[in-house]
Amino acid sequence: MEMSSDSDVEELLLLYALSRSQRKRVWVHDINQKRKDLGEYHRLCRELASHEDRFFTYFRMSQDLFKELHELLIPKISKCTTNWRTPISTRERLVICLRYLATGDSHQTIAFSFRVDRSTVGGIVKEVCTEIWNTLQPEYMPSPTEETWKQSEKGYRETWNFPNCVGSIDGKHVSIKCPKNSGSEYFCYKKFFSVVLLAIVDPCYKFTVIDVGSYGRHSDSGIFENSIFYRHYIHGKSLLPDKPLPGTEEPVPHVLIGDEGFALKTYLMRPFPRALATQDERKTNFNKRLCRARRVVENTFGILAQKWRIFLRPIDCDVDTAIDIIKAACCLHNYLRTKQGTAILTPESEDENVPMRALITHRPTNRRSTTAAFETREQFVSYFKQ
């Protein structure tokens, strides 16, 4: 093909020279190419294997439990080796995820420490958290059965002296980065953006049921009544058949116990308003008994936040990833409580707990209750008076 003029040839040669002079895009940054020599996993983590106490502090679990967890996840998080590059090992992927949960550091900080790309950290955290939930949930947070409720009722009756109670319920705001185009849906009354973690806890400080992801502006009662758990176990049903309280003959419903954020129901007991309780010793006594047993769920949230410090600062991810992170942390909580056999805190030792300040509770609700709900609470009031 002939050129129309010498100027056209010169222009093409100039464009070719410019394209050749442009800097080529690198596949892996020069700093990250030294990952296997200087990265945190290949240096510090290897040394921690010789120091069990430091290993536990770093990973929030013992070496045996880490190894067991890793073996469960290997088939789910492994990547194929290609002609282009060797993938990050499954062990290092799990380490990156656990370190992110344990510290709450940003993806960029974790990326610099482990000498990987920031987007790589984000992808690893999301994938590993998803697989932690998929792998651990069926065994360590299964759907509750009748036997589950019976064991929980026995624990609340014997340890916390609150019979016919099958669980303590509460909802907490988990702070997140402002989601794009979300308006005020996630903006809670504490003036930050959040998703809600609603949980029912057994007497051993383990999560029985969780519901994650509701808008921060919603109330505890509204979230609870729109949850899958409510539709499956509460609506038109009963957790367990009614039975008399110890030493009585009249059947009383089995209940959950919550704070002022929930409406009083036949299946859910909340304390009396403070103004009423101060005028009646019976009501004051009921409030003390209920609040002492309800501390189980508060302490559980405290243990969760102190171990996985991602809850101490806003989660800087999209909402779906934040939900995966919260669910994974709750599953890891149950996994470690089960495997480590941590002793149950008794009412006498509860004051030794670190106060839980990371997660914010909901506002009280003034929703009206039915006569049957008031009658059920009165039965507990009369029993605790004895």
From TrEMBL:
Keywords: Hydrolase, Metal-binding, Nuclease, Nucleus. Residues 169-334 form the DDE Tnp4 domain. It comes from the Eukaryota. The keyword Coiled coil does not apply. GO terms for molecular function: hydrolase activity; metal ion binding; nuclease activity. Its cofactor is a divalent metal cation. The keyword Nuclease applies. It is found in: Nucleus. GO terms for cellular component: nucleus. PANTHER family: NUCLEASE HARBI1-LIKE PROTEIN, PTHR22930. Belongs to the HARBI1 family. This is DDE Tnp4 domain-containing protein. It comes from Parnassius mnemosyne.
